[in-house]
Amino acid sequence: MSHDSRQHDSHSHGAPVTGVPHTAEELSESLHAHDEWFRHAPGEHHQEAHGGTNAVVILGFLGATVLFVGVVGFAVYKVYEVALRAEQVAMQERRTPRAEYAGLRADWQAQLSSFAWTDKEKGRVRVPLEVAKRLVMEEYRSPGAPAR
What we know:
Blueprint: H1 24-35, H2 46-50, H3 55-94, H4 98-112, E1 116-119, E2 124-126, H5 129-141
Antiparallel strand pairs: 1-2
């Protein structure tokens, strides 16, 4: 009784198994059948058997790929550059030197607490804030003050 290993596997309790070689001869036959597609006739050149490759198509594809990568890279660079500039401007605006701020604050305090001419020809004078508040309150308390 001959044993056909492609139809029956003794390890599978009678279930048929197809395409599984068990001997060296079966393996060789299986590989030979599988490799037929890859084999070439004696006079056949390898490249012609699988189709010609056009060099212009390959160079065109490579050129398009390089161009695409370049354009995308340039766009990413420009977006990064704009974001970097915006961040630098924001950092400069947040970074007011303490000495400059202290000097400005001293000037504001001096303006709020001192007398000075604002327009001598028209007779306008800057009055300290506390004095101005007091004068306005006294004006409203006086009996002849206009109703506002």
